Amino acid sequence: MGSRMAATSATTFSIGSTMSFSPKGSSLSQSKAFGMRLNTRSFLSFSGLKGVSSISCESESSFLGKESTAALRHSVKPKAQKQNRRSWNNLQPQASYKVAVLGAAGGIGQPLALLIKMSPLVSALHLYDIANVKGVAADLSHCNTPSQVLDFTGASELANSLKGVNVVVIPAGVARKPGMTRDDLFNINANIVKTLVEAVAENCPDAFIHIISNPINSTVPIAAEVLKQKGVYDPKKLFGVSTLDVVRANTFVAQKKNLKLIDVDVPVVGGHAGITILPLLSKTKPSASFTDEEVQELTVRIQNAGTEVVEAKAGAGSATLSMAYAAARFVESSLRALDGDSDVYECCYIQSELTELPFFASRVKIGRKGVEAVISSDLQGLTEYEEKALEALKPELKASIEKGISFVHKQPVAA
């Protein structure tokens, strides 16, 4: 991951494949550097850098898409209106949200924590793991961004790591290894998720909960059942982070069709494993035409992209960096929604009535109270290929959901 910071007469902040934030949101470049030129005549605090009330940016790709890039161009302008609840002091963003990462010392947890640390909306970053988290926290605490970093180690400190938290992100669990399916992860990760969500229910029941631990087709239903048994389940605030499927679909389609990444948006529905991952290429924006062969090739690659990484790492790990990137994008979207942004849309795996399945991944609008709307139009006017693929994924997804639900009912939830 290459980066460079250059100080010239007009300070330039450029990070390739990392994030750069505005008071309103964030932008992260996948391929080319994300350039921001900040005139240094009149200063404001900007994630540890200095800049001014005028900003221009040129980006080939974006962490949160075209809308956020547009917001970046405009959000640093002084606002006379007082309807925004944040207090603007020299245009400084207000860091006012606490985020907990459960499993912060792992392969996903560490880069994810770094990316969340860069958000100007985060006031406190709580890092929890069963071991080795103190060093991660010490390391991150040296980054000159607003959030305070606190570490919590072991079961005895889990409750404290969740006190007063607004967003909980759970990447904890074992990673896939060559030859291992997501189903092979189930017995280990199911128990981890169950234990962690029990603690969330007891200590921050109103928080947004982001489940990353695989297989999320099963772990999200596990989380839902635990929350129900604890009497605090709000389906609008429980999310399975399937964002990586969208990130991959956008990347692969842009490469195949020679499009600018910032312009590409491919909704991905269904679940988050194998054939349950269904990219709706016919709904690609901007509109693009695909041959039958291209549809088949792209769909299969998106579905098997995790295995592509596992095999390439040859036993050394799974998709940790791209997953951290995708999860950070989803966290930032959640923070923007909590902060009052009324234009936040993401694909995620949630309790849903969009199909006959109780859980389903689709594009949703997120607001301060969680899911505000499910975008049902994405499933209308599908191609014959997509219709068949949708029907084909349902039995497998149904089985995964039922497996998660039955796991909780076979084991007592901690009192």
UniProtKB/TrEMBL annotation:
InterPro entries: Lactate/malate_DH_C (IPR022383), Lactate/malate_DH_N (IPR001236), Lactate_DH/Glyco_Ohase_4_C (IPR015955), Malate_DH_type1 (IPR010097), NAD(P)-bd_dom_sf (IPR036291). GO terms for cellular component: cytoplasm. Residues 98-240 form the Lactate/malate dehydrogenase N-terminal domain. Keywords: NAD, Oxidoreductase, Tricarboxylic acid cycle. It catalyses: (S)-malate + NAD(+) = oxaloacetate + NADH + H(+). Residues 243-407 form the Lactate/malate dehydrogenase C-terminal domain. Its EC number is 1.1.1.37. It holds the Pfam family Ldh_1_N. It comes from the Eukaryota. CDD domains: MDH_glyoxysomal_mitochondrial (cd01337). One of its GO terms (biological process) is tricarboxylic acid cycle. GO terms for molecular function: L-malate dehydrogenase (NAD+) activity. Homodimer. Belongs to the LDH/MDH superfamily. MDH type 1 family. This is malate dehydrogenase. It comes from Ilex paraguariensis (yerba mate).
